[in-house]
Amino acid sequence: MSDSERPSERLRQGSEPQWGRAVHHRFVDELISGEVADEVLAHYLVQDYQFVDAFTALLGAAVACADRPDSRRVLARQLGVVSGDENDYFDNAFDALGVPSAERTGPQRAAPTQAFIDLMDEVRRSQDYARILAVLTVAEWLYLDWARRADTLPERFEQRDWIVLHNNADFEQWVAWLRAEFDRLGEQGYPTAVVQAFNRAVELELQFFDAAYVTLAPSL
C-alpha cells in the first residue's frame, strides 16, 4: 500500500487546508528560526502544559480500550515518556522564561486550549478505541510534521528542545506505530464519529497556534 492509499493519509488529506496551515504556521516559522518572542513562547508553552493531564488520561484510556495485548504494551510505555522527558522540558523552559509557578499550573485557559481538553475528555469517555486513536494520532503526527521542517536548530534550549522533542528517532517510531495502528482500524473505512474527531483535532491544533499571539483578558 502506498502512503497515499493509507487510511490515515486519506484522512490527513481530507483535513486540508487546516493541516498544512498548522504545519506552516507563523509560530512554527518563528520557533525554527529562533525569532519567536519570549512572551509568545511562554504563553504557548503554558497553554500546552495544560494538556498534560488530559493527554495522559487519554493515553490511559487507549491502554484500557486497545483490542490487542501488544498494542496495550506500546501505549503503556508511552505513558512514561509523557511524564518523563517532556515534563522535564516544561520545568526547565518555564524557569528560563521566568514563568511564575502559579501561572504554570493555573492560568486562564485560551478558548482552543479548553476546547482541545474537552475533545480529549469526550473521546476518552466514549471508550471508543478508534476515536481515541484519531485524536492521539493528530496530536502527535501533526507535531512531527512541523518539527521535521527544521533543517537547522535555534541556539536557545527552550526553542531548540521543543523541536527536538517532536523530531527524533523515538518520536518518529511512536508516530509510525500510531499511524499503523490507526490504519489497521480504518481498513474498512472509518465511522463518521472517528472522522469528525480527527478533523476537529486538526482544526483545534491550528487554532491553538493562532492563540499563541492572542493576549488573554484578565479574569474578572
Automatic annotation (TrEMBL):
Keywords: Hydrolase, Thiamine biosynthesis. Catalyzes an amino-pyrimidine hydrolysis reaction at the C5' of the pyrimidine moiety of thiamine compounds, a reaction that is part of a thiamine salvage pathway. Thus, catalyzes the conversion of 4-amino-5-aminomethyl-2-methylpyrimidine to 4-amino-5-hydroxymethyl-2-methylpyrimidine (HMP). SUPFAM superfamilies: Heme oxygenase-like (SSF48613). This is Aminopyrimidine aminohydrolase. Pfam families: TENA_THI-4. GO terms for biological process: thiamine biosynthetic process; thiamine diphosphate biosynthetic process. Residues 16-213 form the Thiaminase-2/PQQC domain. InterPro entries: Haem_Oase-like_multi-hlx, TenA_E, Thiaminase-2/PQQC, Thiamine_Salvage_TenA. It comes from Kushneria sinocarnis. It is an enzyme of class 3 (hydrolase).
